[in-house]
């Protein structure tokens, strides 16, 4: 079993920093044999959204909001490595989905994720 815990750059970080992070994540994941259980989890800072068109095999439609730029990067990483984004598969109450809530309690996002192969 391989467990990868990470903290991703925020959405408005420099593109070079985000590219380096996702390249590093890919280099780590590729060393995990596909026959073994791999779990990727952490503060991904990525909204994957509810539109799973083209990604039906790795994500469901039970998420909050629309996909962010980081969400696109994260979904592509998961698709490339056949990692299922767990929090999107089953319907749950909105309050349970939110992993980040603004200080004024108006904005809720689901930016922390757990994925499994």
Keywords for this entry:
3 helices, Deoxyribonuclease I, Chain A, globular, 20% strand, 117 residues, two-stranded antiparallel ribbon, single chain
Topology diagram in text:
Elements: E1 2-7, H1 15-29, E2 38-43, H2 69-80, E3 84-85, H3 94-97, E4 100-101, E5 108-109, E6 112-116
Parallel strand pairs: 1-2
Antiparallel strand pairs: 2-6, 3-6, 4-5
Structure notes:
The protein is built from 3 helices and 6 strands, in the order βαβαβαβββ. It is of the alpha+beta class and 117 residues long. The model has no long low-confidence stretch (mean pLDDT 93). The protein has one domain: Deoxyribonuclease I, Chain A, CATH 3.60.10.10. The strands form 2 sheets. A 4-stranded mixed sheet has the order 1-2-6-3, covered by helices on one side. Strands 4-5 form a two-stranded antiparallel ribbon. Helix 1 packs parallel to helix 2. Helix 1 links the parallel strand 1 and strand 2. Helices cover 26% and strands 20% of the residues.
Alpha carbon gyration radius:
14 Å
CATH superfamily: Endonuclease/exonuclease/phosphatase
Secondary structure category: alpha+beta
CATH 2nd-level architecture: 4-Layer Sandwich
InterPro entries: Endo/exonu/phosph_ase_sf, Swc5/CFDP1/2
Protein name: Endo/exonuclease/phosphatase domain-containing protein
């Amino acid at each position: 079993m391989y467990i990868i815990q990470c903290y991703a750059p925020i959405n408005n970080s420099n593109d070079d920093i985000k590219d380096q992070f996702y390249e590093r994540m890919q280099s780590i994941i590729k060393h995990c044999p596909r026959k073994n259980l791999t779990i990727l989890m952490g503060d991904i800072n990525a909204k994957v959204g509810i539109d799973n068109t083209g990604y039906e095999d790795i994500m469901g439609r039970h998420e909050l909001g629309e996909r962010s730029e980081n969400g696109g990067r994260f979904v592509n990483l998961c698709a490339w490595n056949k990692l299922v984004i767990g929090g999107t598969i089953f319907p749950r109450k909105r309050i349970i989905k939110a992993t980040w809530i603004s200080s004024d309690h108006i904005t809720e996002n689901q930016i922390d994720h757990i994925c499994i192969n």
